[in-house]
Design brief:
The chain is of the alpha/beta class. It has a single domain, classed as 3-Layer(aba) Sandwich (Rossmann fold). The protein is 24% helix and 27% strand. The chain contains seven helices and 16 strands. An eight-stranded mixed beta sheet has the order 5-4-6-7-1-12-13-16, with helices on both faces. It has a six-stranded mixed beta sheet with strand order 9-8-10-11-14-15. 44% of the residues are buried.
């Protein structure tokens, strides 16, 4: 099954940790949501990409381990040192969900484009494969956002895949410079208006419309951030509108 419309699930939600090690992960309810959005009724197919961490084998292995014993068909696509599947396009189009991990969104975009994945993902999105991910795996589907890919100081990335005509800010509440820098870049038009997700929040887009925010914990929010309407052309004032998320169970 595939989604009834092009769908992106862009999040600041990672796996739940079981506390027995840094990569001892358990899938949280965001994955059930992704499978539901895809219309997958039994044994959903999910492909993991860890490009943003250089296809770190520990993270790839942890993804498989997280779904062990569950009725889910898990695969992965690594690009280092070469693609791990013979036909990348066919493999991605055969998925219900693609899940992209966090890390360097700048490096991710460069490697994807070198392999033509920018075009493949656009095709998969139109075909109803749910494109999801966390942090870098959320920013990539937008026109851009704030990133620490260039170093410890945040900088804007402006060449996302652009499936969604908005910018985004991930980890909007947990890293102290995320919110003010994002406001600055939307205000001065470095980035277009967009949506922010606090840790634990996911943003669900159907086509190019945000249809809801979801959360895997209480007390967190999504935000719409835009230049304040009616201000002078050279103004930089920004308006934030809170989006109350639906709690996932």
């Amino acid at each position: 099954m595939t989604a009834s419309a092009p769908t992106v699930l862009a999040t600041s939600i990672g796996f739940d940790s079981r506390g027995r090690g840094p990569y001892d992960w358990s899938p949280g309810p965001v994955f059930d949501l992704a499978f539901s959005l895809a219309g997958a009724r039994s044994r959903p197919r999910i492909c993991h990409l860890a490009t943003a961490t250089g296809d770190d084998p520990a993270r790839v292995g942890a993804f498989y381990a997280a779904f062990a014993g569950r009725d889910v068909e898990v695969s992965h696509l690594s690009l280092f040192p070469m693609p791990t599947v013979a036909d990348v396009r066919a493999h991605l189009l055969a998925q219900d969900v693609v899940w992209v991990g966090g890390g360097s969104v700048v490096n991710l975009l460069a490697v994807w484009r070198a392999h033509g994945l920018d075009e493949v993902f656009a095709e998969a999105w139109r075909a109803g494969v749910v494109l999801g991910g966390v942090s870098a795996g959320a920013i990539c589907w937008h026109t851009g956002g704030s990133t620490d890919s260039f170093g410890p100081d945040l900088a804007p990335v402006t060449d996302g895949l652009g499936l969604l005509p908005f910018s985004t800010s991930v980890h909007h509440d947990s890293e102290p410079h995320r919110r003010p820098r994002y406001r600055q870049w939307v205000g001065d038009r470095t980035l277009p208006a967009g949506y922010a997700s606090e840790d634990g929040v996911g943003l669900v887009y159907r086509g190019t419309e945000l249809v809801e925010a979801v959360a895997d914990r209480p007390g967190v929010s999504g935000w719409h951030v835009e230049r304040t309407p009616g201000q002078p052309e050279d103004g930089t004032e920004v308006t934030e509108t809170r989006i109350v998320p639906r709690r996932l169970r």
